[in-house]
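Narrative of accomplishments. A recurring question from our advisory board has been how the design workflow behaves on a single, concrete structure rather than in aggregate. To address it, we present the structure tokens for one chain from the evaluation set, followed by the sequence designed for it. No filtering or post-editing was applied between the two.
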């Protein structure tokens, strides 16, 4: 009878050890999986970025044209050396 009790306790202990070992591999997950990286760039977002850049370029060109039409543009060249002919 004594060996039956010891065998039962050993079996219970082994079962607990195995169960805790299995639970050690268990991982909790978040409610929502992380957002996956798209394999390619977002075409719609790229179009909007291109439109913004084109609008900025357009406004800069309008500003430059206004400056050229006003006649108040001065060009100063400083530090230009002419190449000299060798002997």
């Amino acid at each position: 009878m004594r060996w039956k009790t010891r065998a039962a306790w050993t079996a219970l202990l082994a079962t607990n050890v195995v169960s805790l070992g299995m639970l050690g591999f268990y991982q909790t997950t978040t409610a929502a999986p992380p957002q996956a990286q798209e394999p390619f760039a977002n075409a719609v977002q790229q179009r909007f970025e291109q439109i913004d850049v084109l609008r900025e370029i357009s406004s800069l060109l309008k500003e430059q044209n206004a400056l050229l039409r006003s006649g108040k543009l001065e060009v100063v060249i400083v530090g230009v050396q002419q190449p000299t002919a060798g002997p």
